[in-house]
């Protein structure tokens, strides 16, 4: 009857491909100098179709929580900007070339040119190994993993994420570090998409329990030891894990358990990002979906109506999907006339966005609504 909201595929994944936790940048230590790169094959020609099947939804769900610039590039640019010519001279020619390659790769991803991005990243990785730039090796592996992830090459993404994690842990990073948790979350979602349920569940539970224990341990730390921003980032990462796990549970037909995860994620998002943040609004609608799946239509309607009202106010980029969820829940309450009106509004918004998948879905829902509301003769 309805589709779960998911962050826009291209935008959400691109943000993940171009981001690393701010507090990780100073600690991207790798293994022994001159180490050989793990043998990971990334096909250059095979691009997976851009499906929105349920297997990939948990994998995509987490990727709209953060949108910070890439730390590896950001750190070099700060050094160059702060120290002028002297600082610029401190960045050797090879490192500058690696930074430019990484920028070009991300631009290719933005332009939907994954094959070109992959070739550029291989060049960046080769230079990083030649210069023994450990941070660049790790960051490039992370980008390559996310690129494989975008293309639906889950086996290669798994290998690349594991290579990234191996370098981080080999350099002394702790398992509870946010960077490790984020990679673990993506791996758990890959396992879910591959129906490796035991590994998926263990991964989700590891991420959530580790972060909850970390937050409890760090909550009394003074700001000069752990900044407010660092604490907020850890809370947001927990919200991201809860959100992703909730989607997995809902697709596994466990709506009551999914509801509990969404409630926790929504509370975090409201506290850290605010009620009017796009991610908070999506979570409201997704929580409504779990209530709707349990037949709790009145409660679902309260959440989805609020989400839709806020989405209109802020001109949410996925307003059409939020409206579609609202219409579906209204239809379940047999409020057919109102559901039709909302579906028509959603269709107009989807057409403005040129979202062909949503356009087709909404038209199918309108056809079903027409059948349901037709009087019996």
UniProtKB/TrEMBL annotation:
Subcellular localization: Mitochondrion inner membrane
Domain of life: Eukaryota
GO CC term, one of those recorded: mitochondrial inner membrane
Residue ranges the record marks as coiled coil: 333-372
Pfam families documented for this protein: TPR_10, TPR_12
Keywords: Coiled coil, Electron transport, Membrane, Mitochondrion, Mitochondrion inner membrane, Repeat, Respiratory chain, TPR repeat, Transit peptide, Transport
GO BP annotations, alphabetical order: mitochondrial respiratory chain complex III assembly
SUPFAM superfamilies: TPR-like (SSF48452)
InterPro entries according to UniProt: TPR-like_helical_dom_sf, TPR_rpt, TTC19
PANTHER family per UniProt: TETRATRICOPEPTIDE REPEAT PROTEIN 19, TETRATRICOPEPTIDE REPEAT PROTEIN 19, MITOCHONDRIAL
Family: Belongs to the TTC19 family.
Assembly, per entry: Binds to the mature mitochondrial complex III dimer, after the incorporation of the Rieske protein UQCRFS1. Interacts with UQCRC1 and UQCRFS1. Interacts with ZFYVE26 and CHMP4B.
Organism the protein comes from: Puma concolor (Mountain lion)
Protein's name according to its UniProt entry: Tetratricopeptide repeat protein 19, mitochondrial
